[in-house]
What we know:
About 55% of the residues lie in helices and about 20% in strands. By secondary structure, the protein is an alpha+beta fold.
Amino acid sequence: MKLHPTLIEKLVKIMEVNSGWTGENKLKKALSQLDVAIYKRQDGLEVLVDAEELRKYTSGVAQAK
């Protein structure tokens, strides 16, 4: 299983914004609130993605049909 590039960017941003606090409590809280989903690509590879981004994409595709 891999991380989608957009999820990697979101993780980096969360770490940039929330790290450096005593005990990393702010970072731990931000990471615990992250909602991750599994997306299965057409080639069968499962990829971890941001659940909100997946909902936006799938609702956009459903509306286009």
